[in-house]
From TrEMBL:
It comes from the Bacteria. L-tryptophan binds at D138. This is Tryptophan--tRNA ligase. A motif ('HIGH' region) lies at residues 15-23. Pfam families: tRNA-synt_1b. Homodimer. Its EC number is 6.1.1.2. It comes from Candidatus Merdivicinus excrementipullorum.
Length: 332
C-alpha cells in the first residue's frame, strides 16, 4: 500500500487483567496484522480502567505487564505507535471539551453504562458515565479513519461519530469522522458459560483462558469446558459450547468448520476438547516466551513506551491545539 494512502487506525485495551484468549483472537492478534497496512496507534487504556476501583500497587504493575503483552502479541513499536493513554495528557484534556459537547441523554442511553452500573452498584461514578467522551477523545485526537471495535463497542463509536459531526457543524471542520472496522476476529465466549463473552475480569477462572496460562492449565480448562449432551462436533444453533470451541480451534489452526467436523466425525467431545486445548497451548507458546523476555528487559519496555508517548503526543497536541482555538480558549 502506498505510504500516503494509508489510513489511520486506533484501538486500545484496558489493563484490567492479563489478556484473555478472547482479547487476543478477537482484537490484539489482528492489530498486529493491521499495522502492516495502516498508520496504527495502539494504547493501554489505563484511564478507562479507573472507572472501576483498582488497587494502586497492583494496577501500576499491571499497566506495565499489559504493555509488555501488547508487544508480545505482535504490536511492533517500530511499525505502530504503542503507548500508554495517561502518558498523553491531551486525552483527558480533549475529553473535557467533548464532555461539554455531549448530552446527558446520549450518555444515559449507553448500554455499557447500564451494564457496568449494575455490576458495580457500589461505585457508579461519573467516569463510568462519561467514559464515551474519553473514548471519543482517544479516537478523534488521532484523526482516526478506522476503529477496530467489537460489537460491544459499536454504540460508543456511533456516539463518537455524533459528537464529531456536531463539533464540526458548530466550530467548522475539525475532526475526521471515524468508521467502525469490523474485520476483527471472532467473539470468544466463556468456557464455563458459553452464552457470556470471555472477560478478563470474570471471577470464575475456569471460564477464561489467560494468554499467559501454562499449557497444562490450558488443556485442563478446555477439558472442563461446558458443552451439551449431544455427541457431534458440528457448528449448529443451540450448541453454544461446541460452537465456541470450534470457533477457537478454527482461529488457531486455520481449519474451516466443515474440515473440523470431518476430522472429528465419530470421535467424542473428549478428543475434541483435548485437541483444542493442545492447539491453543501451542499457539500461545511464543506469546508467553516473548512476554517473559520482555519482562526481563524492563529498560527496553520503558524506552518503547516513552517513545510511543512522544509520537502520540505530537499528533494529539496538534488536534488539541486546534480544538482549543476553535472553542475560543486563549492561547498561552
Ligand atoms: N471475548 C471476546 N471475544 C472477542 N473480542 C473480545 N474483546 C474483549 N473480549 C472479547 C475485545 O478486546 C478488546 C479490548 O477490550 P477491553 O480491554 O478494552 O475491554 P473489554 O471489551 O471489556 O474486555 P474484557 O476482557 O471483557 O475486559 P473487562 O473484563 O475488564 O471488561 C476490544 O476490542 C474488545 O472488543
Amino acid at each position: 500500500m502506498e505510504e500516503q494512502k494509508k489510513k489511520v487506525i486506533l484501538s486500545g485495551i484496558q489493563p484490567t487483567g492479563i489478556f484473555t484468549l478472547g482479547n487476543y483472537l478477537g482484537a490484539v492478534r489482528n492489530w498486529a496484522k493491521m499495522q502492516e497496512d495502516f498508520h496504527s496507534a495502539y494504547m493501554i487504556a489505563d484511564l478507562h480502567a479507573l472507572t472501576v476501583r483498582q488497587e494502586p500497587a497492583d494496577f501500576r504493575k499491571r499497566i506495565l505487564s499489559c504493555y509488555a503483552l501488547l508487544l508480545a502479541c505482535g504490536v511492533d513499536p517500530e511499525k505502530s505507535i504503542a503507548f500508554i493513554q495517561s502518558h498523553v495528557p491531551a486525552h483527558s484534556q480533549l475529553s473535557w471539551v467533548l464532555s461539554c459537547n455531549t448530552q446527558f441523554g446520549e450518555l444515559s442511553r449507553m448500554t455499557q453504562f447500564k451494564d457496568k452500573a449494575a455490576q458495580h452498584a457500589d461505585n457508579i461514578n461519573a467516569g463510568l458515565f462519561t467514559y464515551p467522551s474519553l473514548m471519543a477523545a482517544d479516537i478523534l485526537l488521532y484523526q482516526a479513519d478506522l476503529v477496530p471495535v467489537g460489537v460491544d463497542q459499536k454504540q460508543h463509536l456511533e456516539l463518537t461519530r455524533d459528537i464529531a459531526n456536531r463539533f464540526n457543524g458548530v466550530y467548522g471542520n475539525t475532526f475526521t469522522i471515524p468508521e467502525a472496522y469490523t474485520a476483527q476476529g471472532a467473539k470468544i465466549m466463556s468456557l464455563a458459560d458459553p452464552t457470556k463473552k470471555m472477560s478478563k475480569s470474570d471471577p470464575n477462572p475456569n471460564g477464561c483462558i489467560l494468554i499467559l496460562d501454562e499449557p497444562g492449565a490450558i488443556v485442563k480448562k478446555f477439558k472442563r469446558a461446558v458443552t451439551d449432551s449431544d455427541m457431534e462436533v458440528c457448528y449448529r444453533e443451540g450448541k453454544d459450547g461446541i460452537n465456541n470451541l470450534m470457533t477457537i480451534y478454527s482461529a488457531v489452526t486455520g481449519l474451516s468448520m466443515d474440515q473440523i467436523t470431518a476430522d472429528f466425525a465419530g470421535k467424542g467431545y473428549g478428543d475434541f476438547k483435548a485437541a483444542v486445548g493442545e492447539a491453543v497451548a501451542e499457539h500461545l507458546r511464543p506469546v508467553r516466551e516473548r512476554y517473559n523476555d520482555l519482562m526481563n528487559n524492563k529498560d527496553y519496555l520503558v524506552e518503547c513506551y516513552r517513545k510511543g508517548a512522544e509520537q502520540a503526543e505530537r499528533i494529539a497536541r496538534r488536534t488539541l491545539d486546534k480544538v482549543y482555538k476553535k472553542v475560543g480558549l486563549l492561547a498561552k
